[in-house]
Structures are given as structure tokens and as C-alpha cells.
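can u do me a favor
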């Protein structure tokens, strides 16, 4: 690399090899599971008008106030690279009139952008899988969405990760809790971190999320949402938890779990590795792999009609860190062309093998010895040597029936 070769942008990654295989495995598994639950696939723009995020997430949130990649385009509009999926999906729901599909179960995946301090498990371009149920007010939607997340993590082979569940109540409960928190933290204001002193006015729930030791000292005695829950909000939460129990989704109550964005109501949750688990070791402190909740107020903040909805997103990079690397598909058949005159026959064999679902590769360059050495180096289960007359022979241990069947199958012209 010469000195004037441009470098990659800080906080971005080039994903390759075993990590890229793990990435594909996450997306493939997500695709399979979302079909089981009948979530419809959708694709969304990577950028939106800045106001889509500013209005949905709330101006005082970390994402909007510090983390957005916003820029003016050549036409003078303020645009933002999406820092999350939900706001853009809500915008799409409203502008496309997708009310006709309600309740709409929708799934997507792709890159997101946040101007954060890059570290292990935290990037400036990262990727998520995302699932939303829009236009469903009933707790059954929360249950289904969480059951899907739980099944996905199990099918990815991620163990030792638990669903931490809370309710933020309805708008009234949340407001009363907020007042209680302002009252409680207001009394110790001077002892809080600078960030939390600021949060006290704008976003007091966020203090509960603080990792600063000065704040942590006051967290355990802070008022809990349960004291403020309306009967309806309590009944809603109980329906969610009993649904989860019936579906055998394990969960634990996390009374001070709050989500960073303003739009959450009722159910809020995160899947977090258990202390001492392999996933916890792999992830370190950036431990939340999947998070979400109910956002009944979001559509209205975008000027739409009141629309209940619930969703989650999971960071693909963090899922990969918890499942570890994955091997590339093993090579089943290497077609070794011993002489150029055998090339046409080799290509015919290769086409049949691949059409028959056999992972196959060809080696046709260099001296015969080089070809042979390079072929063996790739570790194929079987080698098919094709000579100058087009005659082939199979070597290697184990069952060759799949290979023979693929070669002899009638292929349509
Ligand atoms: P955190 O508390 O770790 O900052 P968050 O609450 O900002 O997470 P969400 O907005 O809920 O995260 O995003 C959902 C998931 O996306 C997270 O649980 C995490 O797996 C992943 N994620 C969020 N930000 C990043 C990032 N900068 N790099 C990699 N993954 C991320
Ligand atoms: Mg964050």
C-alpha cells in the first residue's frame, strides 16, 4: 500500500472470510425464521429527510443530538443516513398508505450509520436485522415478536442470552413516573454526573440508563414504574408475560430498563448475555444484542394517525461476535483438468455437479504437478481427474454417490 492510498473511514469495516460467512448465516437464518412467522420482506432507502429521525426519535436523544450523519444535498435539503430502521419504516407506512395492510408484519436488514466512538462491537457503519408489527395494539403482537426473536437467537446457536423485559406503561403512567424521577433525582442533583444533570430536565428516564458511577449510586433506590402503572398498563404487561410463559420464552424483569428513544410505550426489552457466559465474554461491555419495544406514539410524531406498533432490531456484528466464526462451505468435488483437451468435458461435469447441489471447483492452470498440488491444498473431499480424452476418475475417501448422481443426472438443455 502506498502512502497516498486512501484509508477506510474510521468505524467502518471490510467484512471477509469467516466473519462474512457468519454475517450471511445470520441473514439467512433471519430470512428463514421471519418466513415462519409470516413477516413480509421490505427494502428501504438508506437516507431520509433529517426530520424523519429528528421528529420520531426526539431531539434530546443521544442519536439525534450527537450521532447522526446529516448533510445538505445539492438541492439544499437536509438529509440523514439512517441511524435506525423504525423511523424510516414508519415514514414508508404513512407515505405509501400501508394502513391497508395492517396489521403489517415487516422485516428488513441493512446498514445503519451513527457517529459514535468506535470500539469493539461499536461502529460508525453497522448492520441490523429488524422486525416490526405495525397497526397491532394487542399484547399478542408483543408476544409474537418476542417469540420470533427468541427462536432466532436459538437457531443462531446463541446461548446464555436472556430477555430483559420492562414496561414503560402508557402515556399517563410514563408521565407520572417521569415526574417521580425528576423529584427523586432533583434532590441529589449536585451529586449526579454532568450528563445526568442535563438529562434531569430533558429526558430523566435516561438517567436510569447511565453507566457513570456517580449516578449508579442512586439508581437502586430510584422510583420504579410499577408504582405508577395504570390498571390498563398493568393488565397489558401481564398479558405479555403470560403469553411469553405459554410460548416458553424465558425472560427476567428489568425494572430500570429504559430504551434510549422517546417513542417507546408499554413493552421495552433487550436480550443481554448472562454474566459469565461465552457471549458476555465475546461482547464485553457492548452487551445488548437485540433491543426494541412498543412505539404507539411514533406515527403521530410524523403527522400520521395514532398507530400502535412494536418492533426490534439486532446488531449483526454483535450477533456474529456471540456465534463466533463460521467455516466457508467445504469443497466436495475438485475437477482437476490434466490436459487442456479435457477442458470441455470438465466444464460439462462441473455444470452437472453444481446443478446437482455439489460444492465444486475447477483447477485448470499451471503444470500438471502444480495443478495437483493446488487442488489438494484446497482440501476437497474428492478429486475428479479429467484426462485428455475426457475420461474422468474419482479419488478420495467416503461416499461418492451424490457426485455420481449429479454427473449422471439428465440436465435440461
Ligand atoms: P447501545 O446501548 O449499545 O448504544 P442502542 O440502544 O443505541 O445500543 P439500538 O438503537 O437499540 O441500540 O440498536 C439495536 C441494536 O443495534 C443494539 O442492541 C446493538 O446490537 C446494535 N447497535 C447499536 N449501535 C451500534 C453500533 N454503533 N455498532 C454496532 N452495533 C450497534
Ligand atoms: Mg447507542
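np, heres the sequence
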Amino acid at each position: 500500500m502506498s502512502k497516498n492510498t486512501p484509508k477506510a473511514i474510521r468505524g467502518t469495516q471490510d467484512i471477509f472470510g469467516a466473519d462474512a460467512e457468519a454475517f450471511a448465516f445470520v441473514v439467512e437464518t433471519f430470512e428463514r425464521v421471519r418466513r415462519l412467522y409470516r413477516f413480509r420482506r421490505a427494502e428501504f432507502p438508506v437516507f431520509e429527510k433529517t426530520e424523519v429521525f429528528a421528529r420520531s426519535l426526539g431531539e434530546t436523544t443521544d442519536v439525534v443530538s450527537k450521532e447522526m450523519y446529516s448533510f445538505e444535498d445539492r438541492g439544499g435539503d437536509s438529509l440523514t443516513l439512517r441511524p435506525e430502521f423504525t423511523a424510516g419504516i414508519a415514514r414508508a407506512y404513512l407515505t405509501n398508505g400501508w394502513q391497508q395492510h395492517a396489521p403489517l408484519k415487516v422485516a428488513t436488514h441493512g446498514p445503519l450509520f451513527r457517529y459514535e466512538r468506535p470500539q469493539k462491537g461499536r461502529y460508525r457503519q453497522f448492520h441490523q436485522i429488524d422486525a416490526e408489527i405495525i397497526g397491532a395494539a394487542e399484547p399478542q403482537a408483543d408476544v409474537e415478536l418476542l417469540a420470533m426473536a427468541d427462536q432466532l437467537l436459538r437457531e443462531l446457536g446463541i446461548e446464555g442470552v436472556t430477555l430483559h423485559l420492562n414496561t414503560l406503561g402508557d402515556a399517563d403512567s410514563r408521565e407520572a413516573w417521569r415526574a417521580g424521577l425528576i423529584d427523586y433525582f432533583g434532590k441529589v442533583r449536585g451529586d449526579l454526573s454532568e450528563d445526568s444533570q442535563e438529562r434531569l430536565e430533558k429526558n430523566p428516564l435516561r438517567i436510569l440508563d447511565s453507566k457513570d458511577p456517580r449516578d449508579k449510586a442512586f439508581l437502586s433506590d430510584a422510583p420504579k414504574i410499577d408504582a405508577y402503572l395504570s390498571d390498563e398498563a398493568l393488565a397489558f404487561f401481564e398479558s405479555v408475560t403470560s403469553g411469553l410463559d405459554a410460548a416458553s420464552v424465558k425472560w427476567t424483569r428489568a425494572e430500570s430498563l429504559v430504551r434510549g428513544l422517546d417513542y417507546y410505550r408499554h413493552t421495552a426489552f433487550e436480550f443481554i448475555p448472562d454474566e459469565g457466559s461465552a457471549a458476555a465474554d465475546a461482547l464485553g461491555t457492548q452487551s445488548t444484542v437485540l433491543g426494541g419495544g412498543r412505539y404507539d406514539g411514533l406515527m403521530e410524531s410524523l403527522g400520521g394517525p395514532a398507530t400502535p406498533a412494536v418492533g426490534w432490531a439486532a446488531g449483526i456484528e454483535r450477533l456474529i461476535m456471540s456465534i463466533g466464526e463460521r467455516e466457508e462451505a467445504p469443497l466436495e468435488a475438485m475437477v482437476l483438468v490434466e490436459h487442456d483437451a479435457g477442458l470441455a468435458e470438465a466444464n460439462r461435469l462441473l455444470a452437472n455437479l453444481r446443478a446437482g447441489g455439489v460444492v465444486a471447483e475447477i483447477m485448470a492452470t499451471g503444470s500438471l504437478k502444480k495443478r495437483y498440488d493446488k487442488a489438494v491444498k484446497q482440501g476437497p473431499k474428492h478429486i475428479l481427474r479429467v484426462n485428455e480424452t475426457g475420461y474422468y476418475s474419482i479419488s478420495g475417501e467416503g461416499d461418492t454417490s451424490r457426485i455420481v448422481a449429479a454427473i449422471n443426472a439428465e440436465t435440461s438443455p
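The chain has a mean pLDDT of 93. hope that helps!!
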